[in-house]
Design brief:
This protein is α/β, with parallel strands linked by helices. It has 8 helices and 10 strands. Helices cover 33% and strands 24% of the residues. Strands 1, 2, 3, 4, 5, 8, 9 and 10 form an 8-stranded mixed sheet that branches. The radius of gyration is 19 Å and the shape is globular.
Length: 230
């Protein structure tokens, strides 16, 4: 059986080992059910097209949305993603409480084109600098070209540690999360026996949680247990 993914460390990675906790969780869950799995690294859009026509079973990691549920099946939650506001401590040394988007007026906001938060930024008339990826946005933050950007907390930490490990101490994160959502295995409705295979995957996920394999992966990747799916 085949699933697809792309490079989104430390959740998934083009590397065979390391920086791919979601891939490893999915592999372990299927292995517990005796189901061999092959993971293809391909562009996200191509993977979604292959799901639509039933050429592959699933793709990781994906958020569940109303629109996607019309086309695909979703597994039980695999891991939780917490999206946070990152800022540069030297550029904003006196951090104040920011509870609504209205409070961010007067700051330069980094925004990845096409991301979920862009319409709200535009609705509130925020000063936006558009970028093409989280990595590009965090690079802008590191050189103090923007004031804030929303990034998944562990992805953001990973990117900064790769781009500028000596500047990790300079990057701050607001306490209040912008959003918290689960990542799932997104499954083709057209794939043979997809519903039964989804049941088996969910059973495997419960099994590795019960036998400790799931927790061990979080410890290996040093990811906090607050992001575990219960």
């Amino acid at each position: 059986m085949i699933i697809t993914t792309n490079d989104y460390p430390p959740y998934t990675s083009t590397l065979e080992e390391g920086n791919q906790i979601v891939t490893d969780i999915v592999k372990s869950a299927f292995k517990s059910q005796g189901i061999p799995l092959e993971v293809w690294i391909i562009p996200w859009s191509r993977g979604e097209r292959m799901l639509l026509n039933g050429a592959v079973f699933g793709s990781i990691p994906y958020f569940k949305t109303d629109e996607r549920q019309q086309e695909f099946i979703f597994s039980d939650p695999i891991i939780y993603s917490k999206n946070r506001f990152f800022f540069h401590k030297q550029k904003i040394p006196n951090q104040k409480d920011l509870n609504t988007l209205e409070d961010f007026k007067g700051n330069v906001m980094g925004a990845v084109r096409g991301y979920w938060y862009v319409p709200d930024f535009e609705k509130y008339g925020l000063d936006i600098t558009y970028v093409n990826s989280d990595r590009a946005g965090l690079k802008m933050l590191l050189i103090k070209r923007i004031d804030y950007i929303i990034v998944d907390e562990i992805v953001g930490h990973y990117i900064v540690s790769q781009e500028a490990p000596n500047k990790l101490h300079s990057i701050g994160i607001l306490d209040k999360a912008e959003s918290v959502a689960a990542f799932h295995l997104m499954i083709s409705k057209q794939y043979p026996n997809s519903k039964q295979l989804t049941v088996q995957f969910n059973q495997g996920l419960r099994e590795i949680k019960k036998n400790g394999e799931y927790r061990k992966l979080f410890e290996t990747y040093t990811i906090g247990e607050h992001l575990m799916a219960k």
